[in-house]
Amino acid sequence: MAARALLRVPQRARRGEVIEIRALISHIMETGFRHSERGASIARDIITSFRCTYNGTEIFRARFYPAIAANPFITFTTIATESGTLRFEWSGDNEFTASESAAIMVE
Amino acid sequence: MNALPLLFVVVASVALADDRRSGYEFMSRSTQAMQDDDMSNPAMLWVLDGEALWKAGKPSCASCHADMKGVAARYPAVSSGRLVNLEQRINLCRTEQQLVKPYAYESKELLSLTAYIALQSRGMPIAVKDDPAVQKGKALYEQRQGQLNMSCAQCHDQQAGRHLGGSVIPQGHPTGYPIYRLEWQTLGSLERRLRNCLIGIRAEPYGYGAPEMVELELYLMSRARGMKMDAPGVRP
User: Fold this and answer.
1) pLDDT tens digit string along B111-142?
2) Can you tell me whether residue A61 is helix, strand or coil?
3) Is B61 a catalytic residue?
4) Where are the domains of chain B?
5) For site-directed labelling of B203, which of A9, A63, B151, B224 has its Cα 20 to 30 A away?
6) In chain A, what are the domains?
7) CB pair distance less than 8 Å for A22 and B108
8) Rounded to an integer, what distance in angstroms lies between the CA atom of residue A89 and that of residue A7?
9) In chain A, what is the straight-line distance between the N-terminal and C-terminal CA atoms, in Å?
């Protein structure tokens, strides 16, 4: 099944307000350090980067490593500057990509 | 003369005061916050998949069932002549109505559907029916077993609220299943959780779907009768 993501972005905000954004995505985050029951090593399969853009401008970026738990949950803040779209992009091993977007109204 | 009956009422209500507490109440505030917000609760990722599966296939689940309010609060229950839990009931529907293969226990599909159904009982009281199997489950719950020679009751009745290692021992009320257990980093069923406990006391765990497992589940649900469902829960 395709990756699922849950976003918490305020629908409305005052201009200049500090807003909290949460992004949760389904991913196994296989570390690459484990072995199967038969002793074969299990290949690494993780999300390696996360990016958030606000009307096209990058406002947040993170690199993920094998120590990040499955279904990574990231929270950060930004300043509500203008109405528009926040776009979230995840990419990782095995050509994994996922993206979601959320609209925000700034008044 | 009137004082005596009143006194009885007071005594009776004190005796009936419910000191049962869901595992939710034993969690840290941050874990509770994670469960309370549907956009932070990772189990909701499975609910999204479950909703898609619910509407998929021919015939789909949705083509027969309108909604599943309160259903998860009534399982395990007798169906097709035997006691089944919710996961087994889903698989019965698959094999008998949809004529497709049953899902494997703990598969993403089965957990997703269970989570989607369980969510619809959120806030509703657990209401399993009485069945002779409740007594069987109770006997299993009180049976000492494993190399450590312990019963479920010894921890979850007698030592509940105290600590085992760094963790609080909850009272063992299955209000939130399937749960997203942070230790597992995934969603899991009550059976998986029971297997964890059995392995912990170094007993041979019952197989998935074993009658003993379902009887234990039923006993736990009957013990939690009236408590509110908070599925799908997050647990440490």
Assistant:
1) 999 999 999 999 999 999 999 999 999 999 99
2) strand
3) no
4) 21-235
5) B224
6) 5-106 (2.60.40.10)
7) no
8) 12
9) 38
